[in-house]
Specification:
Elements: H1 3-17, H2 21-34, H3 39-55, H4 59-70, H5 78-91, H6 95-109, H7 115-131, H8 135-151, H9 158-176, H10 179-193, H11 199-214, H12 218-235, H13 238-254, H14 258-274, H15 278-295, H16 299-315, H17 319-335, H18 339-345, H19 356-372, H20 376-394, H21 400-403, H22 408-424, H23 427-436, H24 453-474, H25 480-498, H26 512-522, E1 524-532, E2 535-541, E3 546-550, H27 554-571, H28 578-607, E4 611-615, E5 636-638, H29 642-650, E6 658-662, H30 669-679, E7 684-686, H31 693-700, E8 705-709, E9 712-713, E10 723-726, E11 729-732, H32 733-737, E12 745-749, E13 757-759, E14 763-765, H33 767-774, E15 778-782, H34 788-803, H35 808-816, E16 824-828
Parallel strand pairs: 1-4, 4-5, 5-16, 6-7, 6-8, 8-12, 12-15
Antiparallel strand pairs: 1-2, 2-3, 9-10, 10-11, 13-14, 15-16
Length: 831
């Protein structure tokens, strides 16, 4: 082979392996046109060109090229051509034919010394097994590929082959539910791909998206896919493009948008059909049917189509996808009342190594079958088993971000179990299912991500970007570049946490009898709110009884709370014209009346005059309860779940040092902290230039009570970076999660940081939630803007009461009784 031909062939391989098949194909055509290659060398180049053609969607042309190469290939190179044909068949969806060729090729190569070629064919067969759902076999091939590749030198091109094996291992980990391990594998592969061009990095973005989708973070998956889809057109990666569209369909469906999911799935199906890839077109058809079922239309048509599709996918060797189609058919038959047909679709069992999603889907379908047949015991058993599988899955995550992400199947399992519990009607059964269906992340011990040098630098850069954005804001300007940079850094920091393994441990659920005993001891009544269909309900638990009450319309209540918070923000700390002030105050009273009528009034006869422990759902997490006339002066504590409240109540810690912090640019914070310093003469005071993030975090780590008066910001889009402003930048919820210990009692005299983003299953994220997750028993914070002038008197009265031994809930109720627009809430344990 001439130097020119050899160089063009090597460059072509480089381009194809780097995810640029169109560029590689041009190089190969140039080499073939030179006419300087031997027949054997021509055969090799034709085989490589076939791989480039199939990557661009030209399967028929790829097979023609392989036939042409077969006529000139030498006996020594026939195994390479056989491998290329198997790869083309794999990429066109003919899995069984490809597997037979891969098996023959590997058997032949094992009798030779061509170890580099053997490693590459093992890589491709491992990819086939992974697509077909045979995870154990896939991992065996990938591990052997990496072992052989690692023993060879870089001159054989092995670093990239090993990286692809590690990449494939990550794909297998996604199927087994090991998301942190998968993301770590993807990082290792990315380190090699970064030096090989952007093509494989784009493919990796698609696989990261599938991992995040499996972890219950569809919006994050969509962000990764956007990155991929922006790069695919110029790379001309047809199959990968269609796969990304298919994953986007799944992400949209998980996010609750079946119409958009169907649009993406239909696009993927069209692209696969144009490539004559019937296998992947069938997988895309399944995504279309899932979207149709989720939209609630044509369930009988969906059932029939899904049942036929299950048989087709099984014949194509896609066992996992076939099982998913059969389970979808069963659910669709149940939805249209055809129970015997549904039962027939559910005759199989989970296969060993089946993906978590399929195991959850089978439990859900069987629970729904039990409900349709009136077999409540079966419904409970299947839903409980499914939720237990999901808890085991989430226990593998060290990141709170992932722990609070719940798959849509988890939400549906909880819904089916709770519906059966409500039909059963026994208070202890309803309670048990409420506990299984909310705030499960509080059951896992916190795991702190090791702070490596890169993460420390990223956090420092984020603080600087926040300072720049804040400075521009105070000068009436808007710095979009600083905000954009901050969002990018936030995502990098979050992604670091996603790679952290969980401890595998889990706190026990507190039983119904235990909760009643603890409530009797505290002299309190607990109200657990829930939505069921279009109804807002409440389970009220006292020392001797428990009642299930129907309340008002949840949409009306949630809208009133949103308007109330908007009005409070508009009224707070401003000198408004009297007319506008009257309008805002009238609206506040109107929204409070709506919440009182729909939520509180039905409860009052049952709870009597006892202190209240409230377990909210949805937007009720942002309700300033003390503003309601009937609750003014009454101790109210808000907790994520009964188990979390009991756990906080039972903790006994000796009093620790007091920390007082005054943030910048807040007119009355210095006065507030000065007054509190007189109440706590031995306290540590951080004010002015001393109120830095580092000083505060160091002191917080050693304090029993911390009071921080500063500007607060709830970041709805990125709640782990909700923050308090200090003199050298923001102290963020992310910082709290990194603390080894947190104060037993924290008071945040700041705006908004009592808010939380509420995910499926009433999983909460925010600054206050970060403290509760990390071990604070009591957090007093505001769910809306705070008038910092009025807050001085309220906080002074609150702390004076604490020093007299008054419990936090009572102290806050007394301190805010005469300030009707003071939206502070006692979270966790109120005494």
């Amino acid at each position: 082979m001439s130097d020119r031909v050899r160089t063009l062939h090597e460059r072509a391989i480089e381009e194809i392996n780097s995810g640029r098949p169109a560029v590689g194909a041009r190089r190969l055509r140039d080499a073939l046109r030179l006419g300087e290659a031997t027949p054997s060398q021509t055969a090799r180049m034709l085989g490589t060109l076939a791989a480039a053609e199939v990557a661009q969607g030209s399967t028929a042309r790829a097979l023609e090229l392989l036939d042409e190469a077969d006529r000139v290939v030498s006996a020594d190179d026939r195994h390479l051509l056989l491998s290329q044909r198997a790869l083309v068949l794999l990429m066109s969806g003919r899995l069984d034919d490809a597997l037979a060729l891969f098996d023959d090729t590997i058997q032949g190569l094992r009798r030779t010394d061509k170890r580099a070629a053997l490693a590459r064919v093992l890589l491709n067969r491992g990819m086939l097994h992974q697509i077909a759902g045979r995870v154990r076999l896939a991992l065996a091939d990938l591990d052997q590929c990496a072992q052989i590749g690692g023993s060879l030198g870089p001159d054989d091109g092995m670093p990239r082959t090993v990286a692809k094996a590690v990449h494939g291992r990550g794909q297998c980990r996604v199927l087994t539910g090991d998301i942190p391990g998968a993301l770590r594998d993807f990082d290792i592969a990315a380190g090699v791909y970064a030096a090989q061009g952007q093509g494989m990095l784009a493919v990796l973005a698609g696989d990261r998206a599938r991992a995040l989708l499996a972890a219950g973070l569809p919006s994050e998956a969509a962000t990764e896919l956007d990155t991929f889809l922006r790069q695919v057109p110029e790379l001309r990666m047809g199959h990968e493009h269609a796969e990304a569209e298919l994953t986007m369909a799944r992400a949209r469906l998980a996010a609750g948008d079946p119409a958009e999911a169907r649009r993406w799935a239909a696009r993927a199906r069209l692209h696969f059909r144009r490539r004559h890839n019937d296998t992947w077109a069938g997988v895309a058809e399944l995504a279309v049917l899932r979207a149709d079922f989720a939209s609630g239309g044509g369930t009988a048509r969906v059932a029939r189509a899904a049942s036929r599709l299950a048989g087709r996918l099984r014949s194509l060797g896609l066992r996992n996808d076939a099982d998913e189609a059969a389970l979808l058919a069963a659910r669709a038959y149940l939805a249209c009342g055809r129970v015997p047909r549904a039962r027939a679709e559910l005759t199989g069992q989970d296969r060993p190594g089946a993906p978590l999603a399929n195991r959850l889907l089978r439990r859900l379908a069987l629970a729904e079958l039990g409900s349709a047949e009136g077999d409540r015991r079966r419904t409970f058993t299947e839903a409980r088993t499914g939720l237990a599988l999901l808890r085991e899955h989430r226990a593998r995550f060290g990141s709170l971000d992932l722990q609070t992400g719940t798959t849509s199947l988890g939400g549906e399992l909880a819904r089916v179990g709770l519906a059966a519990a409500l039909a059963d009607g026994r208070p202890e059964v309803v309670y048990r299912w409420l506990e299984r269906s909310r705030a499960q992340a509080f059951r896992f011990p916190p795991v702190r991500t090791p702070a490596d040098e890169r993460t420390v630098d990223a956090v420092a850069e984020l603080r600087q970007a926040a300072i720049e954005a804040r400075t521009a804001e105070l000068h009436g300007n808007h710095d979009p570049d600083a905000l954009r940079r901050a969002r990018h850094i936030e995502r990098e920091i979050r992604a670091k946490g996603w790679r952290t393994d969980g401890s595998g441990e889990r706190h026990a659920e507190v039983g119904f009898a235990e909760v009643k005993e603890e409530l009797a001891d505290a002299g309190s009544a607990m109200v657990i709110f829930l939505t069921h269909g279009d109804r807002l309900l409440a389970q009220v638990i006292g020392d001797r009884r428990a009642d299930l009450l129907g309340l008002g319309d949840p949409a009306t209540v949630f809208e009133a709370i949103a308007r109330l918070r908007s009005d409070l923000d508009a009224a707070c700390g401003r000198s408004l014209p009297a007319t506008i002030e009257r309008v805002i105050h009238t609206s506040i009273r109107r929204q409070l009346a709506v919440v009182a009528d729909h939520v509180l009034t039905p409860l009052l006869d049952v709870v009597g005059d006892r202190d209240l422990v409230l377990v909210p759902t949805g937007a009720l997490s942002a309700m300033p309860w003390s503003l309601l006339d009937a609750l003014r002066g009454r101790p109210v504590t808000v907790t994520p779940s009964p188990s979390a409240w009991v756990a906080a109540k039972r903790v006994v810690r000796p009093p620790g040092p007091v920390l007082l912090v005054s943030g910048p640019d807040l007119a009355h914070s210095a006065d507030e902290v000065d007054r509190l310093a007189r109440i706590y003469p031995r306290s540590t005071v951080l004010d002015g230039p001393d109120a830095t993030v580092a000083n505060t975090l160091h002191a917080v780590n050693r304090s029993g009570l911390a009071h921080i008066a500063s500007h607060g910001h709830h970041e709805h889009e990125n709640v782990l970076f909700s923050r308090l402003d200090l003199v050298d930048g923001p102290l963020m919820a992310h910082d709290v999660h990194q603390l080894a210990t947190v104060p037993d009692h924290v008071v945040l005299s700041s705006c908004d940081v009592g808010q939380a983003v509420v995910r499926t299953g009433d999983e909460i994220l925010g600054f206050t939630a970060a403290l509760l997750y990390s071990g604070s028993r009591t957090v007093v914070s505001s769910v809306a803007r705070v008038d910092d002038r009025a807050a001085v008197d309220v906080m002074t009265a609150y702390h004076r009461a604490l020093t007299r031994g008054v419990p936090p809930g009572r102290a806050l109720a007394d301190a805010t009784e005469d300030e009707w627009l003071m939206p502070f809430v006692c979270h966790g344990w109120g005494g």
